[in-house]
Amino acid sequence: LIDAIAASSMGRMPEFGPLALANTAWAFATMSVRNHGPLLDAMAAPSMALISEFSSQELANTAWSVAKLRFGNVPLMDAIASAAISRLTEAN
Known about the structure:
Blueprint: H1 2-10, H2 18-30, H3 37-50, H4 56-68, H5 74-91
Helix pairs in contact: 1-3, 2-3, 2-4, 3-5, 4-5
């Protein structure tokens, strides 16, 4: 079932908004599904493109998911960090 969900989701990632991207990452991380590198790779590009539109919760969920899944996509991690830092400086 997980394989079917991953396969179905991969082709639709470019259509996903921030909430769908964050929730997909969170769902796979919650289930500790680490063997779906292609799905994570497919989520990285649209996530980076839309990172400025992510809510604070979506940023947090995506950051947690990346850490939980040990997904070593440095550009994605850098984009999340940059967006989070930007939010912190805007709040002050």
